[in-house]
Amino acid sequence: MSWDAMPLASGLAWTWLALVLLHGLIEAVLALRQMRHVRQHRGAVPAAFRSHIALAAHQKAADYTVATVRLGLWELLWSAALLLFWTLGGGLDALNAALRQAMGTGLAQQIALVLVFAGISMLLALPWGWYKTFRIEQGFGFNRMRLGLWLMDTGRSLLLGLLLGAPLAAAVLWLIHSAGSAWPLAAWLLWMGFNALVMWLFPTVIAPLFNRFQPLQDPVLQQRVETLMQRSGFAAKGLFVMDGSRRSAHANAYFTGWGTAKRVVFFDTLLQKLNADEVEAVLAHELGHFKHRHIAKRMLSMGLLSLLGLAMLGWLMQQPWFFAGMGIHVQGDNAQVLAHPQALGLLLFALMAGVLGGLMQPLGAFWSRKHEFEADAYAMRQTEGRHLASALLKLYQDNAATLTPDPWYARFHYSHPPATERLARMQPQATGATT
Prior knowledge:
Shape: globular
Helix content: 55-70%
Mean pLDDT: 88
Radius of gyration: 24 Å
Low-confidence stretches: 430-435
Strand content: under 5%
Strand order of the largest sheet: 1-2-4-3
Number of strands: 4
Order of helices and strands: HHHHHHEHEEEHHHHHHHHH
Oligomer: single chain
């Protein structure tokens, strides 16, 4: 690296340190605000909900929220320390050097670096997942998995990640090496095609690896759902019930797949907790996302951002100061990393994108909440608003979602509007909601 590039490398290092610390500070302050605000309002159910939510359920939601946010705060500190270790601490540089010494340079070593890094990251995340599942979720009565099933799910996820991720990583790295200056566009087309393939395979190949799916057996509900979908212009391959209760007491419903593989999936827990009117209202909300093309808009925005990111990465990988500023030794014996920067560049950029994405999270959350309001409005045009309000009240209660979030925490993190805001927009029909 030339002497002229050293100030740029130093500047990047300090900027990266400042961004990591700023992101951590913002998240810590928001988490502390959320816990304090929820605790302060734990003793009384908000007036708008007193006829529908028992004090014990409200207090359970408050305690559950505080427990999950506290765990998230500790995980945040751990993640920030890991980020600095992998980058400015030289962890990624040392891993790359070890693999280069063992394997030499070339595509195989590049693929190995990506896969080993991903494997280490997943293993380091396991204790957090275990604690959330078997301490928090189980402590509040939501977890229904035994350790053996959790380990099987973890093993399947690791294997699936390897089977899907290894060929993708190899293809992207090969394109970076072989496609010249056009590699960002080629890699972007590959990435978009890969996502489309996964979306197509998910309902019929991937999801059945983890859950059982049975056709919806209730003929009355099936007729109502099909009529609703016809009114909305939505065609699905089938209506299915998933054994969500095997793992969790949380309830949900979703659309999945595209083209001929589209499905509507209900958690069995959802059908147990909601009546037919409420299930229809929840499905109408999901159809609202379809009618407003929310999924397509999100995919388009993510596609444009990924193309911009790859173009930026293409330029950064030609700059020695980028690697030096992010903790990669590019002088002396290690100078050869600049001849093979593909995997290092991808991993460094992915680490940076996580922090930058976290700082931009309020924009995404705002956009998502806007979409949720639009989907609610569509559902109220297709079904009776009181049924949607009743369903939301049951789901908030059964999922232990707090009714009193800190406003700033909600603006930064909530992809769905708080219950008070959603139900306020359903007035006056929502006043007839019953649980």
